[in-house]
Amino acid sequence: MSKLIGPFKEIVTLSSAPEKGALDDSALDIVQNAGVLVDDEKILKVGDFDTLKSETSDVEEIAGDQVLLPGLIDCHTHLVWGGTRARDYTLRMSGESYEKILEQGGGIFDSVEKTRAAPSTDLLTGLIRRANRHLMDGVTTIEVKSGYGLNVENELKILEVVKDAKADVISDLIPTCLAAHVCPKEFSDKREFLNYLENDLLPQLLVKGLTNRIDIFVEPSAFPMEMAKEYLSKAKNLGFELTIHADQFHIGGSQIAAELGARSADHLEASTDREVRILAKSETVAVALPGASIGLGMNFTPARKLLDAGASLAISTDWNPGSAPMGDLLVQAAILGIYEKLSSAEIFAGITFRAAKALGLNDRGRIANGMKADLAAFPVNDYREILYNQGKIKPSLVWKNGKEVNHV
Ligand code: NIG
Ligand code: FE
């Protein structure tokens, strides 16, 4: 039997907001004094609470003023790692650059060493802890990248950890292989390393059902454009979906993303008007990672320009031990919004259905008929309070697949 959840002061449905381009707040499609009718794991109806009451006797009554949003979606994280990079962060605060630390063998290499040395059980515990914290912040779908293994054995170890965590984590985990994060110290030739991944790792990922998504860090200090394009083309031919760490310090990655029809191009802090136009013309979602801008003390992704040009913009944490250790999606989205002059609708779209688009998912991110009943209720009486409080007000209730989630 269907269940009615409510009443909510407001339900921010985002029910028919377009996938691309600028939005004004009419796109929030707010229903007042509303309820949501849920059938098993899916949303059946949204409407006036008192009217919907006549449709079922199973009512989950909500106390106090609450505003309901779709469950949040974090479409770019690196949640499996060993060790800490507090030393890097301290060096960066004193003026050392992220790229210089990497060049000197620290940075990502430091996390690779610690992650390789860590037993799977420790990595699993860390992933579950981070995913649970995210869930309490209203994040019900989380993309998780590998990328601190950099060889077949350890990349598989990390992706197996993500697979195993699905049994213990309530949120959906969407795995991505980022074995091409940087070239490991054992290889002097980047092309040779990519050949090794193509031959020895990618086919195994499909056979073992570990992921159907491939990522690469396109950057002179990681993998140059032509090499990356070749690797991604091969992955695409094998049947993988693509996503790219693009234009973080130098341009290039976003162009490849558009050319190859990647689901998303992420970072884009260095994108110029040319890259903005290329992305806007494509179906590739531009993913802003304000947590990395904050963690590195660098400029934000040109989110306003991307939206005005017609691109689809998602916002994600990039939660990782190096560039983005904070991992708070709502705080970061609110900060990006005030710097980049985004509307509430653009910010909420970026952490809900547009983030779902970046993951190739069209069954979530809106409160509308047929969508997954992933929901987050905030203890406020006006949706504007959520971003005004800069993400510090956390959900009082979260539902995953129609079921209320207790504190984890
Ligand atoms: O998205 N830029 C490349 N990769 C990650 C950071 C990884 C790290 O520093 O550990 C990012 O920012
Ligand atoms: Fe990243």
Would you mind describing this structure in some detail?
There is one protein chain. The protein is of the alpha/beta class and 408 residues long. The protein has 2 domains: 3-70 and 365-405, Roll (Urease, subunit C, domain 1); 73-358, Metal-dependent hydrolases (TIM Barrel, Alpha-Beta Barrel), CATH 3.20.20.140. It is 37% helix and 21% strand. The protein contains 16 helices and 16 strands. The chain has helices at residues 49-52, 86-93, 98-103, 108-117, 120-136, 152-165, 190-207, 225-238, 253-260, 273-281, 290-296, 303-309, 329-340, 344-350, 353-358, 384-388, and strands at 3-12, 30-39, 42-48, 59-61, 67-70, 72-74, 139-145, 172-180, 213-217, 241-246, 264-267, 285-288, 313-315, 375-378, 397-400, 403-405. The strands form 2 sheets. Strands 1, 2, 3, 4, 5, 14, 15 and 16 form an 8-stranded mixed β-sheet that branches. The longest helix has 18 residues, at 190-207. The protein is globular, with a radius of gyration of 21 Å. The protein starts with a strand and ends with a strand. The relative contact order is 0.17. The mean pLDDT is 98. Bound molecules: N-(iminomethyl)-L-glutamic acid and fe (iii) ion (FE). N-(iminomethyl)-L-glutamic acid binds at residues 78, 107-108, 111, 217, 245, 248, 292, 318, 320-324. N-(iminomethyl)-L-glutamic acid is lined by residues 78, 107-108, 111, 217, 245, 248, 292, 318, 320-324.
